[in-house]
Amino acid sequence: MEKEEKAIPSDESPEIINYRGVKAMPFIIGNEIFEKLGTIGTSSNLMVYLTSVFNMKSVTAATLINIFSGTTNIAPLVGAFFSDSYFGRFKTLAFASICSLLGMTVMMLTAAISKLHPPHCGTKETHELCKGPTTSQLAFLLTGFGLLITGAGGIRPCNLAFGADQFNPATESGKRGINSFFNWYYFTFTFAVMMSVTFIVYLQSNVNWALGLGIPPCLMFISCVLFFAGSRIYVKVKPQGSPLTGVVQVLVAASKKRYLKQPDHPELSLFSHIPTNYINSKLPHTDQFRFLDKSAIITMEDQIKADGSASNPWRLCSIQQVEEVKCIMRVIPIWASSIIFHVAIVQQHTYAVLQALQSDRHLGSFEVPAASYSIFSMLSLTIWIPVYDRIVIPFLRKLTGKADGITLLQRMGTGIVLSVITMLVSAVFEEQRRTVALTRPTIGTAPKGGAISSMSTSWLIPQLVLAGLSEGFNSIGQIEFYYKQFPENMRSVAGSFFFCGLAGSNYLSGFLVSVVHKITENQARGGDWLPEDLNNGKLDWFYYMIAALGVVNFVYFLMCAKWYRYKGAGDRVEIAMEAKGSSKHVV
């Protein structure tokens, strides 16, 4: 960590940036801890809340959660755009934090005020006698969801970058400070998940929903207080315009010149201007997506300024801009494979919870909350990361001779294979759980009806551990892949790209649940795969279907990986990031 430092001014940045480094960390790290405790504490038990308090059918609740999660994950792309283009990270975080606080408060009120949720069904009543939420109750609930989505859209793309802004990247102590901040960031995330899926979920499920949902807004209020308390010492980077503008310019220019003939020697004849102090590493010309090269063809209508730049960037773009757009377009097919990959992971947060509700959750006299079993995914991921970094990578490095042991695409492919195995194991457990429930004495009735199987919920642990390991390979590999393959000035967009993949997974999962339920509910043979009572359904068949999609997805991924060409910047990526140094413009 670093002491208070001042950046050396330059012609481009006449202000002296006063980096406070470690002095700003108590406010930022404290804000991170309480924000994540509040956010995860509110969202981790939604499946049980919607089915038990709002009396929703399991299919409806799963679909709503998938839509909510998907929109929450796609919102960071919008937040990153507004942060980079108009408001800056500090103002975006401030607004988003307040929205999250209001959203958590609304969720708490839905549980605390009886008129804001339907009357309780009672365990002895049949499902038909349960009243669902009224229009006004559902509208109030969706208002809370909307505020939480807005908060996530601003917090997720900005919190890591804002913390890193407090350190001087041009100094060794600053670089160490940034690394230390990242470590603390992921520690707070793990800590928040573990606390939320154990203590807060226990209060929600076993004590009182109003109390369990009342704690998150209190924690979020503390988060806001800490964030604003440090506002005087923060480095606040001014918005410098969205890098997505350059992407659109290339597409528009290529469209305008679509009838031009491709040049014979593009690397020699295309417009090749690169601005002074350009932070992105220079990229060599590639033959993929050659239609984009037309945006760099100089015609009689194009004019060049005295400094060598194009007078109209919407008609003439540099070959450097073109290659940066190609980098993004090459990533998109790889990114698409992540959508089906995460569908398998999504099931561990929706239907795995319903499986737990209809299994024996007792440890002695203590009954474990159904949503708390997701902690095993986080534990396996947390344990695997240092094992992979300290043991697996050095071993693979000796075998392959590569610095990282295996390539990022190989790592992601391994994760896809593990996700398929996760679904197969999930299907086997569900088949056994249902068989035991139908052939042996049961131990009670689930809150939404249906007998509770005497089979222990501990048998869920293998599929949850596998889900955590698959994320350790694919999800973390994705984040690093986007970080390294996107142009340097698009790192915030690269981070949002990962969440967009999660959004696609949530939407696809919701679509699959709705379609499968609609198609199978009236079938004479086999019956509804996804009924309210899992003992009367075929959830294992649904899992096998997702596993089959995973196999198809893996074949598609192999084809894309074989075609993919890594960004040709090498070590210059890191050099460029260091050279970025003190070129921040502060408020």
Outline the secondary-structure elements.
Layout: E1 5-6, E2 18-19, H1 25-43, H2 46-52, H3 58-112, H4 135-155, H5 159-165, H6 172-207, H7 209-229, H8 244-256, H9 266-269, H10 319-347, H11 351-357, E3 362-363, E4 366-367, H12 375-400, H13 408-439, H14 461-485, H15 491-520, H16 539-563, H17 572-580
Antiparallel strand pairs: 1-2, 3-4
Helix pairs in contact: 1-3, 1-6, 1-7, 2-3, 3-4, 3-7, 3-15, 6-7, 6-12, 10-13, 10-14, 10-15, 10-16, 12-14, 13-14, 13-16, 14-15
Task: Describe the fold and architecture.
The structure is a single chain. The protein is mostly helical. The protein is built from 17 helices and 4 strands. The protein has a two-stranded antiparallel sheet. It has a two-stranded antiparallel sheet with strand order 3-4. β3 (362-363) and β4 form a beta hairpin. α3 (58-112) crosses α7 (209-229) and α14 runs antiparallel to α15. The longest helix is centred in the first third of the chain and has 55 residues, at 58-112. The radius of gyration is 26 Å and the shape is globular.
